[in-house]
């Protein structure tokens, strides 16, 4: 290769490197997804309605914030458990590290990451049968996002710079800089990890209302991959790791609407769900006998909260306790925390039962009886759920 050709090739690659470096640096500075922010002005910047890369943002933020109280789970916990109840925890730092679209495999990675980067005293972990699978969910909690405290921030900086080379991030940076980001709301980091209800309200409007969101959520819940045997084994192993850190663990089964539990029955998944509950009760009791402060509560079922009338029969556009049948509002989250830790508004007597090997049989028998009553007393809603579940897949 002659001198001119070498100069051309050298110049070409120099220009390419300069262009890629500039793009990566732009995205790193604008940081449209808040991948490396905590306690910075960018947290208050209005951002796009659909919060992308939530696991990236939260794994970084929690390592910086180092909370004593942590919430783990999927979008139900992210929307429903409020972070503004520090009085329950003696004013200690609270952070909601739940991530939308998280499978139990994702949640395990998030829980163990938090335990490595912070001195966690209390972990509150929301679970449900359909997402109890090790398959990576929409949250995509990759191994590169988590890690031990030493060297974590240096590694994350490199990962974030690499992510800054992607087209979607560049497009979103340009939208922010040009004021064309579309509908915006506050980041969940501005609320210590809890989803801003303004975001949820806007999302519901995009569905054209709560009623139109119900069939999609029913199908999603009924078609979930969990619970699976490998996920229960992995969960058991994770609880053992967390217990070695001497933290207080409170596991709770999410109070999705009664229609979603009926969907599991209609899909033929009821027995698997109840076997899963029995397995969880055994896990909690075994670790408790070994000295771990772990408790398991069931807020699902057919109780005074979960059987709230839906717009299908109430004629109202919204529900008091639910955004739709899959996600509960934070007024329900406050009742959950009150049952787990005391204080606040006392929850209804039938909302939240601690599951033990001694009471699991009676509890599940009561659930089956309540399910059969619900089918009779809410015939219009359950018939609607059956039609939705037997019908064609509804695209979001």
Can you give a write-up of this model?
The chain is an alpha/beta fold and 396 residues long. It contains 15 helices and eight strands. It has helices spanning 3-30, 54-65, 75-80, 104-117, 152-163, 167-178, 197-206, 210-222, 229-243, 258-266, 270-289, 311-314, 330-341, 360-377, 379-390, and strands at residues 47-48, 69-72, 94-96, 122-127, 184-185, 248-253, 293-298, 353-354. The chain has a six-stranded mixed sheet with strand order 3-2-4-6-7-8. A two-stranded antiparallel sheet has the order 1-5. α3 (75-80) links the parallel β2 and β3. α1 packs across α5 and α1 (3-30) crosses α6. It is globular and about 85 Å long. The termini are far apart. The mean pLDDT is 90.
Mean pLDDT over the full residue set: 90
Shape: globular
Unreliable spans are none
Radius of gyration: 23 Å
The main pleated sheet reads as:
6 strands, mixed
Strand/helix succession:
HEHEHEHEHHEHHHEHHEHHEHH
* β-sheet strand percentage: 5-15%
Q: Order of strands across the widest beta sheet?
A: 3-2-4-6-7-8
Report the span from N to C terminus: 56 Å
Instruction: Please give the share of residues in helix.
Output: 40-55%
The count of β-strands is: 8
What is the number of helical segments per DSSP (H or I, 4+ residues)?
15
Which structural class fits the helix and strand makeup?
alpha/beta
